[in-house]
Design a protein that fits this description.
By secondary structure, the chain is mostly helical. 52% of the residues lie in helices and 2% in strands. Strands 1-2 form a two-stranded antiparallel sheet. A hairpin with a 4-residue loop joins strand 1 and strand 2. The longest helix is centred in the middle third of the chain and has 17 residues.
Length: 230
């Protein structure tokens, strides 16, 4: 996904060629699990490439996947259990809010069909209601962290995990039309989280793996920091 954004602004054609080669290698198919957010993330790149080329072969597999999921929504809960793949069918961990929702926002913008946004809004808000701590203005990684504490007694909020969420919000907002009914929700959430994480930056400009106990993880966490800057 990052390479796709680089390809869009770079004068060097090698990035776009590399992405096209990857796409054709996999015939523009998302990965194998129908519901798993991680397996849909690559479609963000596929849809970017479709919009640049107009080649429907880059679009059709993602259309088929998202249409099927919308028509057959998972009945799984948001209680994640890594021993049971069925518990990964929903967006039950915070990283998933980067992986899948932007694809549905892209699909809605490409097709003009609101059903993609309606599905995205419903599932995103279910995860928000479940994992977002409104007092701390941060997301738990998943429900297994609700009752855990850091060494300093603070709640556990993973730096990169919250970066995934904020990066996903940016991707969604780039796709949402200004009059989308849910736009204000995503804007408000991004502002809330941005204000919170700005106050958690260390003196060197980085963030740490644990947002509320940086001393427990003294090394700067560059991937989470990159997300927050993005």
């Amino acid at each position: 996904i990052g390479m796709s954004e680089l390809a869009a602004i770079s004068k060097d054609a090698k990035y776009g060629k590399w992405l096209r080669d990857i796409g054709w290698k996999y015939q523009w198919q998302p990965n194998g699990h129908m519901y798993l957010a991680d397996d849909l993330a690559v479609s963000q790149m596929y849809l970017d490439m479709y919009r640049r080329t107009g080649d429907k072969r880059m679009l059709d597999p993602t259309t088929a996947r998202t249409e099927w999921v919308i028509r057959h929504p998972s009945a799984s809960s948001l209680l994640i259990d890594y021993k049971d793949y069925l518990t990964l069918e929903r967006w039950s961990w915070c990283d998933a809010l980067f992986m899948a929702p932007p694809v549905y926002a892209q699909m809605s913008r490409i097709t003009g069909d609101p059903k993609y946004l309606e599905f995205m809004d419903k599932e995103f808000k279910a995860t928000y209601d479940f994992l977002y701590d409104k007092g701390e203005r941060l997301f738990y990684r998943d429900h297994t962290f609700f009752d855990k504490k850091e060494a300093n007694g603070k709640k556990i909020f993973w730096g990169r995990g919250n970066g995934w969420v904020m990066g996903g919000l940016v991707k969604i907002l780039k796709e949402l039309p200004g009059n989308a009914p849910s736009r204000r929700f995503y804007e408000t959430l991004l502002v809330e989280m941005s204000e919170r994480v700005a106050g958690l930056q260390d003196r060197d400009g980085y963030w740490h793996a644990s947002l509320l106990d940086p001393g427990a993880y003294p090394n700067p966490e560059t991937s989470g920091s990159g997300f927050f800057v993005y």
